[in-house]
């Protein structure tokens, strides 16, 4: 039987939570969607937007998480997943398997994506490079 007491109902409207800096990356801004609180830390969902032009990107890292997806809402981003370059465009969904080494190195000025991760307090760990990373596209 489904346990309906482990989580709460949540309904967040666009004006309810602002985009804020101070998240994992300073060149992005983040908007909390209330899921971490509603699930008591089981899952986090937030919107992520480009805030500054890419200079060095995220660097090589992996996440200690059980589940992570990125759904690109606007614009595009270029990732390295292990040794494979991947262009993620508006409408695309990427499931990042647990522990995959990756590097977000380029993105458009209008990039915005929905990220859903479990657990909400997942960790990010810097890792050794898997390969060379192409340069980012300069913003005009």
Automatic annotation (TrEMBL):
Family annotation (Gene3D superfamilies): Jelly Rolls
Stored SUPFAM superfamilies: RmlC-like cupins (SSF51182)
Pfam family for this entry, one: Cupin_2
Domain of life: Bacteria
CDD domains: cupin_bxe_c0505 (cd06980)
Residue ranges of domain Cupin type-2 in the record: 51-104
Stated name of the protein: Cupin domain-containing protein
Organism lineage string: Bacteria, Pseudomonadati, Pseudomonadota, Betaproteobacteria, Burkholderiales
């Amino acid at each position: 039987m489904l346990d309906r007491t482990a989580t709460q109902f949540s309904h967040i409207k666009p004006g309810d939570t602002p985009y804020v800096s101070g998240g994992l990356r300073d060149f992005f801004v983040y908007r909390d969607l209330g899921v971490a609180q509603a699930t008591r830390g089981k899952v986090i969902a937030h919107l992520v937007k480009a805030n500054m032009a890419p200079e060095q990107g995220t660097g090589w890292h992996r996440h200690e998480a059980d589940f992570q997806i990125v759904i690109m809402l606007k614009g595009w981003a270029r990732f390295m997943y292990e040794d494979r370059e991947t262009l993620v465009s508006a409408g695309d969904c990427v499931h990042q398997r647990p522990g995959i080494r990756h590097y977000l190195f380029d993105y458009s000025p209008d990039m915005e994506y929905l990220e859903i991760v479990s657990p909400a307090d997942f960790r990010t760990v810097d890792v050794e490079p898997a390969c060379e990373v192409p340069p980012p596209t300069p913003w005009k």
